[in-house]
Batch of 2 targets.
Target 1
Amino acid sequence: MHLFNTDGLKNTDVFPKDTVPIFLDDDFRVIEGPSYWAIALAQKRSRSIDTLKQYTTVLARFLQWRDDKGVKATNWQMTDEDVINAYIGYLINNRDIKGRPSNKTIEDYIATLSYFFKWATKKGYKHYWKMDLKKVTIQIKGSSSMVKTEKQVEKRFQIDNGSTMHVDREQDKFIHRENIPQIMELFDDVVYAFIVLVLWKTALRPKELFQLPYKGAGLNAGLKRYREEELSVLKEILFRFESKGKDRDIKFPPDVWTVICRKWMPERVKRAVRYQERNNGKMPPNNALFLSEDGRVVTPKMLRDNFNKVAQDPRCPEKKITPYMFRHAFATYFILDRLKHFNLLGKAYVYNAVIDAELREWMGHENIETTYKHYVHLVNRYFHNGLLDVMDDPVNKEILNAFEK
């Protein structure tokens, strides 16, 4: 069995990958199913080049093992639960002196194989691995192993505090940042697009969000409308608010408040007139930054209703959208970017006081495990499974630039 990279598939729209892996048997004939799978992976934006290589390498090792047993890689469809258990046993009994592959690595191998066989089922390839291919877990004890096939079993992994993190469940409450510009365009009222921007860049809870003033006072006096020449040198602004019965503050991002001043404040002035018409000439309160198009102060219920409406739009790129999900996405991408900066992405958990202190300040948590360890393990698993792209300023700039339109 051979695994090659070829540039002869450029017409398959696999940008930005320069080459695509291709599986060949010992006579250099294409092994159809695995090769088409590699092409399908290359076409996914969420699959980086490293992830593509990792996935295809796992499958190549499995096919080579079949070759070595005399079954032949071309007979990959002749795979059932017993074959998978035998392969796990082979991996366990042939570990190197450092104990590699570890139990966790073996579980990842089988999860990748299940992903391939799930794809093969959808594409009409008949095979004999009749487990639930969407969710799989492995129990490994000593040199024995068992692949669970119950339909409700989830792919899971243990974090250091002994609790179980369910990847599928976490994924359901996660918003990918490359989808945020498209999400903002789906709101009927632009006020909710501005709210999305604030939620995404500050990790505020909805109740905290609605304490943002139109014109701040006291410690929040810095939250006001600035002239254009002032915006060019704007620094971080203190925002103090009540959070779960306690006072808390963050340094409000100057780039977000610049967008608020340039694009939202003029619109808010127009909506204030409609508020007056609805309220016998009374001006809207200064502690109400967000007004709807018809001149009402935006409430948490209005926010939820509009988010639900967008989530039901067939053009929405996410299955579910709630205001709180942007807080979760903030923490996830914050850790992703920081781990990349410190060259810790994908590596074993190491406590970093700088990262923890930064995240704890934004999230307002006191427990280290909820503000740091949980997200480190989650990000590493997402990254390992190809669920996150390491994207920095381009996406953030695209989100901010969306308001210039």
Target 2
Amino acid sequence: MTGRSELPIGRRVAQWRVRRRLTQQGLADRLGKSKSWVDKVERGARRLDRFSVIQDIAEVLRVEPAVLLGEHPPLAGGDVRDGLDGVRAALARYGVFRAQMRPVSTAELRRQVGHAWLSFQHGQYTQVVRALPSLLDAVQTRPVGEPVQAEPTVQAYRIASSVLVKLGEADLGWLTADRALVAAGGDAVLAGTATISLGQALRLAGRQRLALAATVVAAQRLTMAAKRPSRVPAGDRPTPSGRRAQEWAVGGTLLLQGALAAASCGESRQAEALLDWAEGVASRAEVADDPQRTSFGPVAVEMARVMVAVERGELAEAVTRHELVIRRDGWRRLPAEYRGAYLVDAARAYLFAGDLAGAGRMLVAADGIAPAEVRARPSTRTLLGELARGRPAPPGVARLATLVGLTR
């Protein structure tokens, strides 16, 4: 046993409290205890002999209970959630002018946004979280009189919302998506991209019907705009990566979000209708460089059909569709983050169908494509822990659980 493991549990509580930048009073308030109670625990004057209390403390400190019990060390390289306090602090500076800040040019801001998106789409969530405070400062603390740069501002908030949703922070994901909507102003495409993030955050928060309403209204607005005849001469019309193509791609993605929300609240017919609508849109959307980072297309529609089938309890259909999806040409062209997240959803389909080996295979595949999808997301770690407790555990799962720190 290492020296760290031999530390009294109270000392470990104190170490993690300091690491999370909490005072004894702050920890006490979140636990509904007194400061004296926390002080006695940390000094060892009061024993922690109830696992339910240890779980409550671990939840506040954002660690596994086993870390406090000394059963395994924290993950190498730290927890991606360690950086969330910096993100919260940056969000709290909203609208504040900081004279000491070096103004960021539009070109530099776009470069930072592009780098953050690239990191996100490669599943490098720790890098994204580290970059967010300075990126949010750049879009939130502008010199007086400088106009708002709508597109990079919306994209910065979308990146923030996307990674916060990944890390289970529904309220912060909702907040940043809302700020993206405000920054979008009257631009339908930017407002639509912000609504994609809003729908994801609302779904995580359990507000499925709100997510359904918001995404469908935004999708209707965009698809109607995309259908309007162009007044631009044929030779001067936008290329497939132009405005109209973006309207189709963002509108189609909103329809997929709406279908998932509809399925989650038991509206199966509406979910199916939205998927069919999205399939029609996908036949028109040909975005070469995908400037709005939607990854929308026929493969994305089929992936959504798999997830809707899972929500409806049609597990055999979900598994069959999944096996076809991952054989399609467009599958490997999707970003690593997109594929990794989908494989985690597919793992749940196999698990619900009683195929533990299939579920394990999907999780191991997801870890190979985008490790943070398995190792950093709380919901996926829970799924991995459930599979690791199987007897016997699916091939590769026990090793992965050990790497993630879920077993001794």
